[in-house]
Specification:
With 426 residues, this protein is mainly alpha-helical. It is 75% helix and 0% strand. It folds into two domains: 184 residues, MFS general substrate transporter like domains (Growth Hormone, Chain: A, Up-down Bundle), CATH 1.20.1250.20; 219 residues, MFS general substrate transporter like domains (Growth Hormone, Chain: A, Up-down Bundle), CATH 1.20.1250.20.
Length: 426
C-alpha cells in the first residue's frame, strides 16, 4: 500500500510541512528581530545563523543516542515540545545576547530532532515503500523553503517579529499532534551502556561500512555547496544581478517550488529513486546547476539555473536517506543520522565562512565554479564506486551494484533487489 494512503502517515507529512514552515518563519524573525530591535551588525547576524548549526557539530553522534535508546517518536515529541517553549522564550528576549542563547537552545533541540526524523521512516512503513515514504517526508520539509519565508514575512508584517515566534511555537505543537498517534515497529535492543560507549559504537558502525563512508563523502560535497550558497547568493543578487532582496526571495521561492514538485515526482518513482546512480546524478546536477546560476548576469538564466538546482536536489536527498537506512542496522539509525547531521553542520559552517572570501577573490562566476565543482567530483566518485563494484563481479547472480565489502542488517523478507545495491545482506 502506498504510504500516503495511511491516515496517520498522511497527517505526519502535512504536520511536518507545517512544522518546517514555522521554523523558516522563526529564522526570518530572528534576523529581523535582531536587526530592528537590537540594531545588530552583520557579524552579529552571522553569529545568530551559526547558533542553528554549531550545536549539531558539537554533539555529533551523542545526539542520536536517545533515538536508539528509546524510539524516534518519543524523541521527536520531546524535541518539538522543547522547541515550542524555546520559541516563546525567543519572543520574550530583551537583549541581543539573550536572543543568541535562546537561538542556541533551539539549535540543540533541532540536533536531537534531526536524527530522530531520519530514523522514523523505516519504523513506519514496509521496506518496499521506504523510498516513497522518504521522498514524501523530505518534500514536506522542503516545502518550508518555498513557503516559509513568505509566511514569515506575512507574520512579521501583521504581528511583528515576536508574533512570528509565537507562530513557530504553534507549528511545533502541530508537529507533536501528528507524531503522538504514530505506531512504530518494535525492534530488539541491547541493554543500554554509557552514552559515550553508544556514541562511539555509532561511529564504528559508520567506519566499518565502506559504502556508508562513500555516501558521507559524497554528501559532504553537497553540504559544502549549500553552505556556500548561504553567503554567495545574496551577494550575487546584489552585486551581479544588481537587484533588491525581493529578487532574492523570488529566486528562493522558485528553488523551493521546484524542490516540492520534483520531490513529489521522486515519491512516485519509488524504488527507482533509491539507487546509487540516481544519487550520483543528483549530486552532479546540483554542482552544474549552481555553477550555471552564479555565472550569469541575465535574470532569465539565473531563474533557469536555480530551478535546475531545485530539480537536482531531491534526487540527492531521497536516495541518500534511503541508502543510509538500508546500509546500516535499524537499531543504530539515530546515531548514523546524527553523524550525518554533524557532517552537514561542519561542512555548511566552513563553507558559509569561506564563501565570502572566495567571492572577493574570484567573483560570483569563479566562486560558483569552485564550489559547484565539488559536487561534480563527489558525484563522479560515487558513480565510479558503483561501477567498480559492478565490474568486479562479472556474471554474479546478485543485484547490480552489490558491494560485498559492506555489512548491514536488513529485513530478511525484503523483496526488492534495490536494497542490495549498496551490498547489504540479510
Amino acid at each position: 500500500m502506498h504510504p500516503f494512503r495511511d491516515r496517520r502517515f498522511r497527517a505526519l507529512v502535512i504536520g511536518q510541512a507545517v512544522n518546517g514552515i514555522g521554523s523558516w518563519c522563526a529564522l526570518v524573525a530572528i534576523w529581523g528581530y535582531a536587526a530592528e530591535r537590537f540594531d545588530a551588525e552583520p557579524w552579529q547576524i552571522a553569529v545568530l545563523g551559526l547558533t542553528w548549526t554549531v550545536p549539531g557539530a558539537l554533539l555529533g553522534p551523542l545526539a542520536g543516542v536517545p533515538t536508539d535508546r528509546f524510539d524516534p517518536r518519543r524523541v521527536l515529541i520531546v524535541a518539538d515540545l522543547a522547541a515550542a517553549a524555546i520559541a516563546l522564550m525567543m519572543a520574550a528576549s530583551s537583549t541581543y545576547w539573550l536572543l543568541v542563547v535562546t537561538s542556541s537552545l533551539q539549535g540543540f533541540a533541532k540536533s536531537f530532532a534531526a536524527p530522530a526524523f531520519g530514523a522514523l521512516a523505516p519504523r513506519l512503513v514496509p521496506d518496499d515503500q521506504l523510498a516513497r515514504a522518504n521522498a514524501l517526508l523530505n518534500t514536506a520539509m522542503q516545502a518550508s523553503i518555498a513557503f516559509g519565508p513568505l509566511v514569515g514575512a506575512a507574520a512579521i508584517a501583521t504581528t511583528g517579529a515576536r508574533g512570528a515566534f509565537v507562530v513557530d511555537a504553534l507549528t511545533y505543537l502541530v508537529g507533536v499532534a501528528v507524531t503522538v498517534p504514530l505506531a512504530l515497529t518494535t525492534i530488539a535492543r541491547r541493554e543500554p551502556t554509557s552514552v559515550w560507549h553508544e556514541a562511539r559504537e555509532g561511529l564504528r558502525v559508520v567506519r566499518a561500512r565502506p559504502a556508508v563512508m562513500r555516501l558521507f563523502a559524497t554528501g559532504a560535497t553537497v553540504y559544502v555547496l549549500w553552505g556556500a550558497g548561504v553567503t554567495l547568493e545574496p551577494l550575487y543578487v546584489r552585486d551581479v544581478l544588481e537587484r533588491t532582496p525581493a529578487t532574492f526571495a523570488f529566486l528562493q521561492t522558485a528553488f523551493g517550488i521546484m524542490l516540492v514538485l520534483v520531490g513529489l515526482l521522486a515519491g512516485r518513482a519509488g524504488e527507482r529513486a533509491a539507487r546509487p546512480q540516481v544519487l550520483a546524478l543528483g549530486v552532479i546536477g546540483s554542482g552544474l546547476a549552481c555553477a550555471l546560476y552564479l555565472s550569469t548576469a541575465m535574470m532569465p538564466v539565473a531563474f533557469i539555473g536555480i530551478a535546475l538546482w531545485g530539480l537536482a536536489t531531491p534526487w540527492f536527498v531521497t536516495p541518500m536517506r534511503t541508502l543510509l537506512q538500508r546500509a546500516t542496522p535499524i537499531e543504530t539509525h539515530g546515531r548514523v543520522f546524527a553523524v550525518d547531521e554533524t557532517l552537514r553542520s561542519i561542512s555548511m559552517a566552513v563553507a558559509t565562512g569561506s564563501a565570502g572570501f572566495a567571492f572577493g577573490a574570484f567573483g560570483a562566476r569563479g566562486s560558483g565554479l569552485l564550489y559547484g565543482s565539488l559536487p561534480v567530483v563527489g558525484g563522479l566518485f560515487a558513480l565510479g564506486g558503483y561501477r567498480r563494484v559492478v565490474e568486479s563481479r562479472p556474471g554474479a547472480q546478485h543485484a547490480p551494484g552489490e558491494d560485498p565489502r559492506a555489512v548491514a542488517v536488513v529485513p530478511r523478507d525484503l523483496k526488492s533487489p534495490v536494497a542490495h545495491q549498496l551490498g547489504v545482506d540479510g
